Amino acid sequence: MMANAPLRVLPLRPISPAMPDFDALFLARLQFAFTVSFHFIFPALTIGLASYLAVLEGLWLRTGKQLYLDLFRYWVKIFAVNFGMGVVSGIVLSYQFGTNWAVFSDKAGPVIGPLMAYEVLTAFFLEAGFLGVMLFGMEKVGRKLHFAATLAVALGTLLSSFWILAANSWMHTPQGYEMAANGQFLPGPSWWTIIFNPSLPYRLTHTVIAAYLTTALVVGAVGAWHLLRGRATPQVRKMFSMAMWMAALVAPVQIFVGDQHGLNTLQHQPVKVMAMEGHYESHADGAPLYLFGIPNDREQRLDYAVGIPKLGSLILKHSLNGSMPGLDTVPDADQPPVAVVFWSFRIMVGLGLLMLALGLLSLWTRWRGTLYESRLLQRFALAMGPAGFVAVIAGWVTTEVGRQPFIIYGLLRTSDGVSAVGAPAVATSLLAFIGVYFAVFGVGIWYILRLMSDPPTAREPGAEAEDEPIRSAGTTPAAQAAHGGEGA
């Protein structure tokens, strides 16, 4: 610390949030973190893949090229499995609001509950309602109606992310509420104020672009896998080229959007930014940008810090000498666990820079005419396949852990929102979740990887051709006789 910093009486400091006790509160937080992190993997691909499928089908309808239909049929099977696992893993989260976070549900339910209901009514029903048509209706409803169903599914995934992030963003930047006498958060006169809270536009844009980048990296990795094995079919070349275009064009946009999101966070949640930057000390005449270091919450300093002088103020304040307050202005009890936020933020940013590098390398090889021959690019794209998932989870950790110790920022502490349950009960359910999740979803992920291991082919069979559903509703004896008795 600086020599003139105020003296801290360390023995009176509460236990560091980076070293929590394994009590019911910590276990409930760990359980929710595990289940939501596992769940986040699937929507991150579903959102982007739904839009990618709409683009592929639109290009097929416009150009008439069989190649786009082959890619659509190839990826729609992967989408179906991923969508199913996303739905199943997401259902668990809603139950945890009642089992582990009953007090939070009671206090914030009048605001959070309707937002979650809107997600089901406008988004999930739209996705689920048209998913069957998209999967099995290509030969039954006509091209235009099938394309409309694909667009509806893509729109549903975007609407779902909108409502979920509206609820989450309100917990970070709450507004438009009224406090009841019993401590409940009640909706104010305008729901628009609650929905379009200050952080929603930035959080929504950043998350949706992250989903698109995640999908591009997965598609690019699958294309690279087959190119490295000499399977340079027109379908493989096309999907690899489309993925590299996406990475090259969207990665710079994501970096800009992330910067704007950071400035919004600095305005509304400055303590989170202090933790992200490792600023334990205030800097009156320009703060450094710390690249690396070891956060030391107990001593309130960044050990072995490596930084660039004044660059932090230039990025966050757009001035080399901009004043930046530090965690020394924040009570110990109101500080998040800095080490987690500090490193998860750097993982996210580091992967974002690698995505940018991949996009630039693809542009270079495209310009040289070696996009499909460059082993360096293909190995790089293959290695970056999981990077989008890691980045979105790291970003979620940065966002949610940086909000601590509040569950509704500045208004309701996480410790005040937990249910009155014992640690053994939460630990038992946590262990059960870990076992079931790795068993069930591990098999699902293995099956997706197996589908990806085969390249898309000419006249790729659709989902309905491989696993045609049994027809039962609306059958008649005449219809059964016409089909040799099948359909019963």
TrEMBL record:
Main location: membrane
Superkingdom of origin organism: Bacteria
Compartments where found: Cell inner membrane; Cell membrane
Segments crossing the lipid bilayer: 32-53, 74-95, 115-138, 145-166, 209-228, 240-257, 340-364, 376-397, 417-449
Spans annotated as Disordered: 458-488
Keywords: Cell membrane, Electron transport, Heme, Iron, Membrane, Metal-binding, Transmembrane, Transmembrane helix, Transport
Membrane topology annotation: Multi-pass membrane protein
InterPro entries on file: Cyt-d_ubiquinol_oxidase_su_1
Membership in a protein family: Belongs to the cytochrome ubiquinol oxidase subunit 1 family.
PANTHER family xrefs: CYTOCHROME BD MENAQUINOL OXIDASE SUBUNIT I-RELATED, CYTOCHROME D UBIQUINOL OXIDASE
Protein name: Cytochrome ubiquinol oxidase subunit I
Source species of the chain: Tsuneonella deserti
